[in-house]
Amino acid sequence: MSFFFYLAAAVAVIATLFVIGGRNPVHALLYLVVSLLAVAGIFFMMGAPFAGALEVIVYAGAIMVLFVFVVMMLNLGQATVDQERHWIQMRYWVGPGLLSAILLAGLLFVLGNGGTHPMSMTEVSAKQVGIHLFGPYLLAVELASMLLLAALVAAYHLGKHD
Amino acid sequence: MSAILDWFTAHPQFTAALIACVKAIVILLGLILTAAWMIWLERRLLGLWQDRYGPNRIGPFGLGQVIADMIKIFFKEDWLPPFVDKATFVIAPLIAMALMLLMFAVIPVAPGWGVADLNLGLLLMMAIAGLEVYAVMLGGWASNSKYALLGGLRVTAQTVSYEVFMGLSLMGVVMQAGSFNLRDIVEAQHGLWYIIPQFFGFCTFAIAGVAVVHRTPFDLPEAESELASGFHTEYSGMKFGMFFVGEYVGIVLVSALLVTLFFGGWRGPFIEAVPALAFVWFALKCLFFMSFFILLRAALPRPRYDQLMGFGWKVCLPLTLINLLGTAAVLLLSGPGA
């Protein structure tokens, strides 16, 4: 099992690197889809199949489709690739690289201090997720639904013909 | 001979895995053959309804037509146009075919026959259906031509819209059965098929299913009168063949899902006495829905694109939501907690 975990994790990391370094926006988005699928695979391995399935349905299947859709509609072609080539130069890597290195150092420090606990292998069923969402986390669910409702109203207003 | 049998009985885990693999391969081959022969079925039935013969030259009833077509499509030049985005152009038909086949894995064909027995089977099916959009989308984009791109845009908008209530329309069934597992759902339809309590769910799911596999009357992405043939305009040879057969696999899949979720799956009279009848019932019910989808193509004209989107969001989505709330209310009032 841990072999497959490292395999999925490696796929996720490498695909994400291609997302950042890629010049063609559609290819970059497709690598992001691959990365999300790999993360979903990790969820399945950790005994959270519901979260894994939702990751695929919501992120890979819905949100990324809209991203690709917009990029497709713009369909900028070679011009964007040239622009990206111009943008992705060594000196632009310094700032983000430095900030990421700080985060990595923090992560390694936490991991090194033994603040970890072994991966739980108990399977969380859809029913348990539902019970928790409508039990202790009800307030968070309601807040999220209010936020989405506000977004819906705003989108309706923007899309209205007048 | 007996030594081989002894070895298999001594390794029960290996034997079980081997049997499961063989069953999966049998189901896969059966699915592909069914999908291929559906092309023949469609052409013959359309011929029948339009007062002509359809393909009747090769083999009895023209059954060999599919073999002839396959040989022809295999020997066609597989041309890669110079203006396409090569990697995505090649990968799109693979996604179309592979994901459709993968979705069939969760369907119980008969008791004990099915590729995967997953607790979240229906949810996994929805997840793969969500990824299926990429095939047509990438096919349309990578072709780098106007018609293909327009077809790709249309199919994306259509599929994303219809998938929303495709999932919601199934939640009534899930609530009644209390499980995402398709085997449990078939078991739960003992006595009463879900077509009766979940009639609106059935209607909306059938409509969404036709829209997601973009068959007539919802085949606007490949409307030949306005868009050449939409997202697969630039495809030729076997790559086109994969899109084409993938669509028929999709019809078989939607029929199988309708049968499993609303028509009792392999349930039917006399299955206790003759267990082999279970598959026969399943196949007959599937055949009924496959013919029904062909009849839809023969009978209905294509709507306008805005009518299609309006129908989805303004009629089907509210209907599924009402169905969902109604089912929840009935279950809550009649449940053990009430």
Automatic annotation (TrEMBL), chain A:
InterPro entries: NADH_UbQ/plastoQ_OxRdtase_su6, Nuo/plastoQ_OxRdtase_6_NuoJ
Transmembrane segments: 6-22, 29-50, 56-81, 93-114, 134-158
Major localization class: membrane
The EC number(s) this enzyme carries: 7.1.1.-
UniProt enzyme class: translocase
Catalytic activity: a quinone + NADH + 5 H(+)(in) = a quinol + NAD(+) + 4 H(+)(out)
Gene Ontology molecular function: any one: quinone binding
Topology within the bilayer: Multi-pass membrane protein
Pfam family name, one: Oxidored_q3
CC per GO annotation: plasma membrane
Subunit structure: Composed of 13 different subunits. Subunits NuoA, H, J, K, L, M, N constitute the membrane sector of the complex.
Family: Belongs to the complex I subunit 6 family.
Protein name as it appears in the record: NADH-quinone oxidoreductase subunit J
Automatic annotation (TrEMBL), chain B:
Entry GO MF terms: NADH dehydrogenase activity; oxidoreductase activity, acting on NAD(P)H, quinone or similar compound as acceptor; quinone binding
Transmembrane segments: 14-37, 87-110, 122-142, 162-180, 192-213, 240-264, 276-299, 311-333
Reactions accelerated catalytically: a quinone + NADH + 5 H(+)(in) = a quinol + NAD(+) + 4 H(+)(out)
Any GO CC annotation of this UniProt entry: plasma membrane
InterPro entries, per database record: NADH_UbQ_OxRdtase_su1/FPO (IPR001694), NADH_UbQ_OxRdtase_su1_CS (IPR018086)
Documented EC number(s): 7.1.1.-
UniProt main location, coarse: membrane
Subcellular location: Cell membrane; Membrane
Pfam families found in the cross-reference section: NADHdh
Membrane topology: Multi-pass membrane protein
Primary enzyme class: translocase
UniProt xrefs under PROSITE patterns: COMPLEX1_ND1_1, COMPLEX1_ND1_2
Keyword tags: Cell membrane, Membrane, NAD, Quinone, Translocase, Transmembrane, Transmembrane helix, Ubiquinone
One GO BP annotation of this record: aerobic respiration
Its job: NDH-1 shuttles electrons from NADH, via FMN and iron-sulfur (Fe-S) centers, to quinones in the respiratory chain. The immediate electron acceptor for the enzyme in this species is believed to be ubiquinone. Couples the redox reaction to proton translocation (for every two electrons transferred, four hydrogen ions are translocated across the cytoplasmic membrane), and thus conserves the redox energy in a proton gradient. This subunit may bind ubiquinone.
Summary of subunit composition and partner proteins: NDH-1 is composed of 14 different subunits. Subunits NuoA, H, J, K, L, M, N constitute the membrane sector of the complex.
PANTHER family the record matches: NADH DEHYDROGENASE SUBUNIT 1 (PTHR11432), NADH-UBIQUINONE OXIDOREDUCTASE CHAIN 1 (PTHR11432:SF3)
Family per record: Belongs to the complex I subunit 1 family.
Protein name per UniProt: NADH-quinone oxidoreductase subunit H
Originating species: Solimonas aquatica
